[in-house]
Prior knowledge:
Structural class: alpha/beta
Shape: globular
Number of helices: 8
Helix content: 25-40%
CATH superfamily: Ureohydrolase domain
CATH architecture: 3-Layer(aba) Sandwich
Largest sheet: 8 strands, parallel
Order of helices and strands: EHEEEHEHEHEHEHEHEH
Number of strands: 10
Strand order of the largest sheet: 4-1-5-10-9-6-7-8
Amino acid sequence: MLFHEGSNSFLEEVVDFDSAKYVVLPIPMEITTSYLKGTRFAPKSIIDASRSLENYNQELDYEIRGKVFTTNEIEIPPDTEKALETIKTTVSDVLASGKFPILIGGEHLLTYGASGAFDQDVLFVIFDAHADFKDAVYGVPLNHASDSRLVNGRNGVVLVGVRSLSLEEKKEIESRGLAILYMDQIRKQESKDSLARKISGRKVYISVDMDVFDPSIAPGVGTPQPNGLLYTDMIEYMFIIIKNSEIVGMDVTEVKPEPDNKATEVLAAKIITDVISLNEKKYE
């Protein structure tokens, strides 16, 4: 696939595709959302918000420059299976080019689409308020509330920040022996040490559903849940992941833009810039 620079570039920086290391893929997918609508508008809103950020990270003493290429919005078919295949093919093309894909969306089901582009040994660390382990929603197996279950059909999964799930989901997760860090465990040192051991030496894909954050700092999501992560929690976990593993891709999903409050989009863009900075500093 020939990638074209989008009219809106992340961090307002025009970068040549060949020289870039990271490729931002705007995925305006909104097919199976079941509560608040609007995730299809998230990619543009996140990119717009990124332009309010500085390229320089003072805490890491690192400046992102010349490393991030932004494509045009990916055209997503209205049919779910075709949409997932489009995402898989697009991510596969990015990987074949030797680049690091960063998907921004868009409903969380896009993570399942992306997963098909990676080898089975890649571990998916998924930050989410919800377990997303439902067998089906309204009889539909391919949906945003089943995303983690679908990914786990092929890849290993670690769930972080969960505080909303059904008893059936809990039993299924336990029967599969999956690692899950519930929200009430997040700030415990043993939880951080456990994740570090789980991912040590692995290839890892990071998925961030923005409702993992507390609604006080990320109100613009499709399915908000009280008592979520703060940004300091997220960065601490990102540091653990990047220090102990090789990250190979990421996504930031489930932003639902609000007309008068862009804090969620700014937060989403900040996660991306900080992950890039952390990852680049690792290899300096």
